[in-house]
Amino acid sequence: MLRRPRQTAALVLRTFATLPLPKHLMLRLAQRSAASLADVVWARPLDPMQDRHAPRPASAPPQPAMSASPAGPAVRDIFASALREELDAGRQLLLVDVREPMETARGIIAGARLIPVGEVLAHVGELRDARRPIVLYCASGRRSAHAAQHLADRGVSDVTNLVGGVQAWASAGGPLVPPPVG
After folding, report:
1. Same domain, 76 and 146
2. Taking a C-beta distance cutoff of 8 angstroms, is the pair 165, 134 a contact?
3. Residue 154 is part of a domain; what is its CATH number?
4. Which of 19, 96, 104, 123 would suit a FRET pair with 176, their CA atoms being 20 to 30 Å apart?
5. Range of the domain at 78
6. Which residues make Cβ contacts (< 8 Å) with residue 38, sequence separation at least 6?
């Protein structure tokens, strides 16, 4: 079972070794597990001058943000505590877990649909026709943020990203259930 993640990690590292990346990023990639490696890849800034690793001011508490690509509509962010309140209030949301199957074995948010990030764009039509707000999440919120932006760019309305992903959900006391079998 560990053979595939190791092979995937090795392939990604070989690929990144051919790119002109800073040494600290290469070390960070090497230290990540195969399950978290995709988060690092998806989080690479498109603008090389943009520094995502710069420290944020501690004085301002984190606020839900709206992010938009230069050519696309905004995607909302939601914190785990706010999502839990929405679900407890009975709001009908379409939860979409974009993690890979090996990651979902630890548990998913109850009622979530499993659509791995690589398959999200193949489901644009049905997600566009969902007729209810969509909340995407992954392990840490990075992959789901990118997937949410891709969906918004393709006309899917009312798309939200869970900030911090399932890790934040579990830290906020949100329950996880076993994924559906088959």
Report:
1. yes
2. no
3. 3.40.250.10
4. 123
5. 66-171
6. 100, 117, 143
